[in-house]
Each structure stands twice: as structure tokens, then as C-alpha cells.
Amino acid sequence: MSEILNSIKFDDRGLIPVIAQDHSTNEVLMMAYMNKEALEKSLETGKVHYFSRSRNKLWQKGETSGHYQYIKSIKVDCDGDALLIKVEQVEGACHTGHFSCFYREISDEGLKETQKKVFDEKEVYDGSKVLKEVYDVIVDRTINPKEGSYTNYLFEKGLDKILKKVGEEASEVIIAAKNKDKGEIVYEISDLFYHLFVLMVERGVKLEDIYNELKKRR
């Protein structure tokens, strides 16, 4: 492993560009980046891991959507500063719902879509994105308190207050379920999710920790 990693030339940010290609059709699926840890994880697990520059973190392709990339081969270019990975792609590679991120073609009329969507991106992307956005807002309140914020009020009151609210919201979910009112159930579960997120942030638990635990139980 160390010999392989030493032959790779990561840039001054510790990254290397990666092209993912469908192993059966040779269609180019996407372009992303890896750091040393992402490459190590990919080699160890057989599933492609990348490094997100915008989020500054390691991520596994398909970790929220289930659209994994299973490695068939990895090639290194002549200068050792780019990778070509042939994969078995589950569903599609692009978060827009297309099989490939390169689903648009430049024409005289402008950008023209050349592929139909293979899945509904709202079902597998927006849902987890909303959860992440809510969690991130709660984290931000700990860094940038906002006057009148209910979230900051909970943090100021401390763990016991947060736990009390989690218990209250769980009870309200039970009552809503007994009332057999779907709208009420959705509303109360959303309240419970929010208060659980506050508890998670207070105790240092990340969404990824929950995702990883749930993946173990599948």
C-alpha cells in the first residue's frame, strides 16, 4: 500500500484529480478529487471514496443515496498526478439524476441534454441535503449565536433541558400516532428530529456517525 501511495503525486493541497469511468461502456461518469486517505479507503474497501473540497472532508460515493461505485480497476497517468478509475456504477453517478455528470453537450443551440434521468434526484439527494442543512444551522448557532434563537436558548439551558425536550417530543410522536393523523405525525416527528439534532450537536455526534451506524444494520 505504501509503495502505491508513494508513487502518486498529490498537489500542494494533498489532492489528486480522479476520473470515474463505467467499466462496461467506458462512459465517463464524473470527475472529483481524492486525498491520500480517500485513496487508501478506496483500495481497502473496493468502493470509491473521494475528498470534498467544498466540505473539506472525506466522503464515500453513494453514502446517502446508495449509488455506490465498485472499483474494477485503477490506472495512474504517466506523470502520476491523475487517476482513472473504472467502476461498476449503481443507478447513476450524478446527483441531478443522470447516469453521468457529463449529460450535456455543447451545440449551436446551446447546452443540450443527451441523457434521460435514471433516478429522481429529489428522492435520494434533497432529503438528506435538508437534514444536513438543518444540522449545519444548529452547528452554526453554537459558533454564531443569534439573539432570540430558540436553538441558542436550548444550548444556554444545557443538557438537561435538551433531554427534557427530546422526551417531550418523543411522547408527542406517540400521541400523534395513536390519533392516526398523518399530518400530525409528520409534524411531531419533524420536531423530534430537530431536538435530536440539537442533542447530537451538544454531545458532539455527527450525522455521518448515524449514517455509518445505520449502514451497519442494513
From TrEMBL:
E.C. number: 3.5.4.19, 3.6.1.31
Protein's pathway: Amino-acid biosynthesis; L-histidine biosynthesis; L-histidine from 5-phospho-alpha-D-ribose 1-diphosphate: step 3/9; Amino-acid biosynthesis; L-histidine biosynthesis; L-histidine from 5-phospho-alpha-D-ribose 1-diphosphate: step 2/9
SUPFAM superfamilies: all-alpha NTP pyrophosphatases, HisI-like
Alphabetic keyword roster: Amino-acid biosynthesis, ATP-binding, Cytoplasm, Histidine biosynthesis, Hydrolase, Multifunctional enzyme, Nucleotide-binding
GO CC field: cytoplasm
Alphabetized GO MF terms: ATP binding; phosphoribosyl-AMP cyclohydrolase activity; phosphoribosyl-ATP diphosphatase activity
Family classification: In the C-terminal section; belongs to the PRA-PH family. In the N-terminal section; belongs to the PRA-CH family.
Protein name, UniProt field: Histidine biosynthesis bifunctional protein HisIE
Lineage: Bacteria, Bacillati, Bacillota, Clostridia, Eubacteriales
